[in-house]
Design goal:
3 helices, 4-stranded mixed beta sheet, alpha+beta
Amino acid sequence: MNRKYRLTSSTDFKRVRRTGKSYAHPLAILLVSPNGLTISRFGVTAGRALGNAVRRNRAKRRLREALGRYRPRILSGQDVVLIARPALNQAEWSDVLNALATLLGHAGLLEEEK
C-alpha cells in the first residue's frame, strides 16, 4: 500500500482508538475516525493474543491484502484501523474478504457499486 494511504504514527493510531467508532466481527475489529483530509488512511495491527510474531505478521498481511481489494471503493476522509482477532489466521480467504466487506458496510465506508 502506498505510504500516503497508511497511518504511520502511533499518535494517529491512538487518536483513532480514542475518538473512533468501532465495529466488531469475529475475525477483526474496525475503528473509524474522520481525518479532515481528501484521502482515507489505513492502519493494521495485531495483538499478542494472536500468537508469536509469525502469526501476527501473517494476520496483518491477510488484512492488508483484503483491504487493498476494497480500497478503491472506500469513501475518502477517514482514518481506518483494523485489528486482527485470533480466528483470522484459521479462516478461509473468502471468509476474510466477507468479514472486511461486512465491517466496511456497517461503518458506511463503501461506495455503491456502479
